[in-house]
Amino acid sequence: MTVDLELPGPPAVTRVVVAMSGGVDSSVVAGLLARGGYDVVGVTLQLYDHGAATARKGACCAGQDIHDARRVAETLGIPHYVLDYESRFREAVIDPFAQSYLDGETPIPCVACNQTVKFVDLLDTAKQLGAAALATGHYIESRALPGGGRGLFRPADADRDQSYFLYGTTPEQLALLRFPLGRLPKAEVREIARELGLIVADKPDSQDICFVPNGRYADVIEKLKPGASEPGPIVHLDGRVLGRHEGVLRYTVGQRRGLALSVGEPLYVVRIDAAAKTLVVGPREALETRVVRVRDVNWLGDGAFGDLPAEGLAARARVRSTRPAAPARIRALGPREAEVELLAGESGVAPGQACVFYDDATGDRVLGGGIIRAPERVRAPALSVSEAAR
């Protein structure tokens, strides 16, 4: 297959920087563009070094993966550079991730990484190298819009859809970003890797949180923030103190397992009061949410976000990466604040997660999104002396 990046000038004189993580997707992007005659430069970011994480299967942007990216570049005959972004990654992604958990949120570090390290810092590096575009292996489409500019659209392979993690891409960034895998199924990507003779053709996919060894994010936070796992009370919505937890960072809204409660009924985390170190639990129906407040809105729809109709814009919204986009209505509350009405309701909406907007007609175009705010704090019930001492 051939790839048209919709850039001015012939490929031979068009430099494209490819963000190479060492995985099959970005490697195939580099291979397709090199085969298409583009002047390809591969760049790999060294983002972290957490010992075991650098060698485990499914990691990215660490030791073995940097080696794999270099081998792929050698096979393709393209220049390859490794940039040390460890301090920047910690400042922009890891530290805010840890603080967000301590604040009682459930953060998404991949969103923060795309908004800072990859699509700000790396994009600046691509410009400095004289590139006309930065290409990545994300599964999402970028298309020219009839009125000018480019828009984001869900990919052909719905099972690989990464639009939830890329809603924060700005219109200015989209002008220089390209996503060549948007129209390809994963199986075909791996087949192309085999055709190109790439050693990563059968390499496992990377994990969602690349810098967390063995998925134990609480261990990482404890290392960054000693004493973060301070215990506290588990309180029922009706005010009963039911037990003790091992630190709010180990829980998320909607969680049922791991509460270690014996009360004769299934209970779920309904709210996390980080300031009071309190988990508030209740029955499943208490998780139902119909309206969420969203901060740090990035708008990719037509017109200005502040010009949305007073009655709100009909759209679809996703409140978790694993959930489908559902009917919603978006109302602008300020330049980067929104109220989102979830028309069918959602269960277990967690502060810190993203609420991503899609067009109402097809659900394919990404209109933007933001971070779900915590609901107004409700004072936790006062504990008796005996309860507080437990």
UniProtKB/TrEMBL annotation:
Family, as annotated: Belongs to the MnmA/TRMU family.
Function: Catalyzes the 2-thiolation of uridine at the wobble position (U34) of tRNA, leading to the formation of s(2)U34.
Active site positions: C113 (nucleophile), C210 (cysteine persulfide intermediate)
Keyword tRNA-binding belongs to the record: yes
GO molecular function: ATP binding; tRNA binding; tRNA-uridine 2-sulfurtransferase activity
CDD domains in alphabetical order: MnmA_TRMU-like (cd01998)
Protein name: tRNA-specific 2-thiouridylase MnmA
Record-annotated disulphide pairs: C113-C210
Gene that this sequence comes from: mnmA
GO CC, alphabetical: cytoplasm
Classification lineage: Bacteria, Pseudomonadati, Pseudomonadota, Alphaproteobacteria, Hyphomicrobiales
Domain of life where this protein originates: Bacteria
Subcellular location: Cytoplasm
Principal location class: cytoplasm
UniProt keyword terms in alphabetical order: ATP-binding, Cytoplasm, Disulfide bond, Nucleotide-binding, RNA-binding, Transferase, tRNA processing, tRNA-binding
Residue span of region Interaction with tRNA: 160-162
Residue ranges occupied by any tRNA-specific 2-thiouridylase MnmA-like central domain in the UniProt entry: 228-282
Site features described as Interaction with tRNA, chain residue numbers: H138, Q353
UniProt source species: Methylopila turkensis
Residues bound to ATP: A19, M20, S21, G22, G23, V24, D25, S26, L45, G137
